[in-house]
Amino acid sequence: MLDLAAFAHYVADAIERDEPAELAAIAEVAERLVDWPSDHVQTAAVYGFLEGLTNRCLGEPERYPFQRLARHLGPSAIAACRDLDDSWGTQTPGL
Fold first, then answer.
1. How many domains does the chain have?
2. Its pTM surpasses 0.85
3. Residue ranges in the chain assigned as alpha helix (H)
4. Residues of the domain holding 29
5. Which pick of 46, 50, 76, 83 has the fewest CB atoms within 10 Å?
């Protein structure tokens, strides 16, 4: 089973590398996970992956500019990130 927190760490590094094809593939995976039929997978995708990733990007925005990934994200992943921003009172760049 994929550790979504470890995946978030990998994605932060991918954001730093800024390879558009890699970020597009990651965004596709994020969208599939957020839309997965299982509530457990959806929850893990949002809170185990997206929340950790956005927090890391907000903590070091010059190193991990989230907007590099955000431009590739689909509507469900964007909506999930906006919901996280609303719940935490944050403003993740690129959303």
1. 1
2. yes
3. 4-17, 20-34, 39-43, 51-59, 67-70, 75-88
4. 4-88
5. 83
